[in-house]
Specification:
Elements lengths: L3 E6 L2 H9 L8 E4 L6 E4 L1 H5 L12 H7 L2 E4 L2 H15 L5 E6 L2 E5 L7 H15 L4 E6 L2 H13 L6 E3 L5 H9 L11 H9 L5 H5 L3 H7 L2 H10 L17 E11 L2 H21 L2 E12 L10 E12 L2 H15 L6 E13 L21 H13 L40
Helix pairs in contact: 10-11, 12-13
């Protein structure tokens, strides 16, 4: 029988902050989205106070002041590095691993003759001791049941952070599933949940007992497989190889309204630079770039404008200079003066591996197949990787970036910036 394990960090963003700031332990903490807009992570203490996921921060100011809720700006560099450390460590516990998200990882324990609950506790202890992150472990004969097991381990303290559904009698398992809303089942989104409840399917148990063919006909083959997974029939395997990305996007809201084209150009250049770095890191090329701008739709008294343009490249590349040139060409054509822009972004599209590059009829010899990345780009990437982000950058991105998003309460990048490392004083 297959045995899947899902390891999921508890309140991941908040937990990352607490690793380096123990004063946050036991306190209600909220991590905010770009421009300190909405709550994207909440400690258990904040959840108990009624802070909902995605709630605009300004709406809960009275509650925050009353209960001394701590609000932190998002620190994505820290979270990404902590995630990499956690996933690297988890890879040592199983022969197969699937990194599902920044804070979730599937493991396959097929072939390992171990006590699963004890092994799950060992995983929790190791992650907690070596990295400082609290995690819960869900175990099941299918990925979907492992997901639900993790949910149970988080919600019900008697499991002590590890829930193994693969050893439970059918009657006990059904009792647990009967207490879980169908919306908590992996792959069931809000609209699907509404449709299922309209059919009288309110719980995970009712979904398990539904006719699989009927579900597949009215929803999708994936939902049909989910029904089978709830019955213990493994229909979803571990994806040990990450599927190739179809797009790379970099988009941000501005810290203040932008009116001038020059400021929009600075932002677009910065976003293209970041996206191109990711492109080269994955040995990919882009065949087109999409640039878009928009005003703030929530300010209904202001004039509204939103537009985008896709620019196809004559030849796929990963050269920041060429991608910037194409993006600015598109930006100049969609820009309209007189508007207060709140957001811009770029999307690199038509991605392909470097080895599959299709040469143009009049290809420059400097862009031969074995020279997709010019020495300039390689050098810039190496300097920025070694010395820190934006040590070297295009002058067009500007120095005084008034449009940058607000992050007034951002914690230091404890693990990725030399000048922000934790300082320990010995007495």
């Amino acid at each position: 029988m297959s045995r899947f394990v899902l390891v999921d960090a508890n309140n991941f963003y908040v937990s990352c902050e607490r690793v380096f700031n123990p004063k946050l332990m036991g306190r209600p903490v909220v991590v905010l989205s770009n421009n300190d807009g909405c709550a994207v992570a909440r400690s258990q203490e904040a959840k108990v106070l009624g802070i909902k996921m995605g709630v605009p921060w300004f709406q809960v100011q009275p509650l925050a002041k009353k209960h001394d809720i701590i609000a932190l700006s998002s620190n994505y560099a820290l979270y990404a590095d902590m995630s990499n450390r956690m996933m690297t460590l988890l890879g040592q516990f199983a022969p197969k691993q699937e990194v599902y998200s920044i804070d979730e990882c599937f493991l396959s324990l097929d072939g390992l003759n171990v006590d699963l609950v004890a092994y799950g506790q060992k995983i929790r202890q190791r992650i907690g001791q070596w990295i400082g992150l609290p995690v819960c472990v869900g175990i099941g004969p299918t990925k979907t049941l492992a997901k639900l097991a993790n949910y149970i381990a988080k919600k019900q303290l008697q499991w002590q952070g590890v829930c193994d559904l693969s050893v439970l009698p059918e009657s006990v398992l059904n009792h647990l599933l009967a207490e879980i809303e169908v919306g908590e089942v992996w792959g069931v989104g809000r609209r699907t949940q509404e449709k299922l409840t309209g059919m009288g399917i309110h719980t995970a148990l009712a979904f398990k007992q539904a006719d699989a063919t009927f579900i597949g006909h009215h929803f999708s083959i994936m939902m049909q497989r989910t029904v089978l997974e709830l019955r213990g029939v493994s229909s979803l395997q571990l994806e040990s190889v990450v599927p190739a990305r179809k797009q790379i996007m970099c988009s941000r809201s501005f810290g203040m309204p932008v009116i001038q084209l020059a400021d929009l150009q600075q932002a677009v250049i910065s976003y293209v630079t970041r996206a191109a770095e990711k492109l080269r890191a994955q040995s990919l090329l882009a065949g087109a770039v999409h640039v878009h701008i928009r005003t703030n739709p929530h300010r209904q008294k202001e004039a509204q404008y939103s537009q985008g343009m896709t620019v196809t490249l004559m030849e796929a590349c990963c050269d920041t200079l060429k991608l910037v040139q194409a993006s600015l060409w598109g930006l100049q054509r969609i820009y309209r003066p007189g508007y207060r822009y709140s957001k811009a972004g770029v999307i690199l599209m038509e991605l392909m591996p470097k080895g599959l590059k299709q040469m143009a009829l009049f290809t420059d010899r400097n862009y031969a197949v074995n020279k997709d990345v010019r020495p300039l780009m390689q050098t810039v990437d190496r300097i920025n990787q070694r010395m820190g982000k934006d040590t070297v950058f295009l002058a067009g991105a500007g120095i005084a970036k008034s449009w940058q998003m607000k992050r007034k309460n951002k914690s230091p990048c404890y693990t990725t910036e030399w000048n922000e490392l934790v300082i320990v004083h010995a007495k």
